[in-house]
Amino acid sequence: MRLAALVLALIATLLVPAPAQAAPADGHGPLLPPEIARTLHHSPQTTFHTATAVDYPAELRELTRVLDNYTAADDATVHAGMVMLYYGHGDAAFVPAVQAYPEVLRALHRFVVWHTDFFGTDRAYLTQNATRELGRFLRHGVLQPTVRPLLADLAARGDVVGRLAPMWVGVAEMVDWYDKANCGRYGTCDFRAKIDRRVLTVRYTCSTTLKIRAQQMTATELRQTCASLAGQDAVFHRVVRDPGPVAGDRNTSLEVVVFNTAGDYRTYAGVLFDIDTNNGGMYLEGDPAANQARFIAHEADWLPTFAIWNLNHEYTHYLDGRFDMYGDFTENMRTPTVWWIEGFAEYLSYTYRGEVYGDAIAEAKNQTYALSALFDTTYDHDTKRVYNWGYLAVRYLAERHPADVQAVLADYRAGDWAGARDHLTRVIGTRYDSDWYGWLSSL
Ligand SMILES: [Zn+2]
Fold it and tell me: What is the mean pLDDT of the chain?
């Protein structure tokens, strides 16, 4: 089948979301369904290459047939169809083909309506993507008369909360991007305010520097979270021995946003905060001179007891950004600092909680990287290298060479990225590598 043939070529593009403005955090979450990248607001470019041009008239007929006759064996084919639609907008032959065969638009609508039972299950990505890909056609004026009533119907069937919220929010976001002037037709004009008011209903002040906005947390859970964060400050300062906030940092307070589940995080956090949500949480430092620092997280709903996933890891990013790393995230990325940023967040999180980092200890046995190699880690490397090996590198230096940590941090605090880089690559260089391998074996 044509669509199936496209799967392998295209799917790889979707599974690797580009790093956003914020520190891409933490690939430890539950396995996420491959979703159409949500942050590409503007003309998706045709970034895939096939040997021949796509035969859109045939593909659109085939997709319509598959959607109308869907069985559980068709998941990959439907997904490939969504990928084709997503990238089609960048191709001149695409819109005329859709215009000539608008049945595919009605089939997308039928597919969502017939399978609303997918929402809330691990097949939700199929109906969620179908909703969004239908909505994406709003960008083309010639197709708006066909698409508008279909989308308005979907919006009317859902609500900002509840099981169908991913459908409702999907419509709202597409309307916001492509048909904002007519949002009244869909009943979604104030959707961000609605999410804020009806989803994030819990407001709690831990202290003058710390606030929580949450979807569903009990008084005990709120107090427990505040206490966990408050207790981390002292441990942080003991390790980094900072002289106070870095120059120009006015992020005196932090807002912690907590969604109830990983699914809710994916439904709401993207539209509310303009972030990628194929991750386990995100810290948004923003402009440290001006704005409200915030991290966005969710409860670990797959664990038996209450926990906010990556809570202490993300909180470390806030403290690190305020007391160690000069300037904003873009500034911090001018040289490879990921070994420290993510490694230290892992190190402090595990150390503070007194937990054994089993994955990293297991990795240590493999002796995969020299210490000197890890100083070059970037977000393009895999999550084992970024998180597990980052942890090992930071822990090794903190335990065996705290003076080097102090020297590098002094440069990071001053924004002397070249100085820090010089310390890592020339002063330290490879001189600890053999000791490092011995230390790894001793863990
Ligand atoms: Zn992180």
Answer: 88
Residue 368 has pLDDT above 80, yes or no: yes
DSSP state of 69: T
**What burial letters (b/e) apply to 194-223, b meaning 16+ CB within 10 Å?**
bbeeebbebebebeeebbbbbbebeeebbe
DSSP 117-151: GGTTSTTHHHHHHHHHHHHHGGGSGGGHHHHHHHH
Distance 43 CA to ligand 1 centre (A): 30
Active-site residues, by number, are 314
Shortest CA distance to 284 belongs to which of 272, 296, 276? 296
Distance from the CA of 318 to the center of ligand 1, in angstroms? 10
For residue 145, the CA-to-ligand 1 centroid distance in Å is 44
Whether the predicted model's global pTM rises above the 0.70 cut: yes
CA 383 – ligand 1 centroid, Å: 11
- Residue-wise pLDDT tens digits, 14-71: 332 222 223 334 433 323 344 444 433 333 444 444 546 789 999 999 999 999 999 9
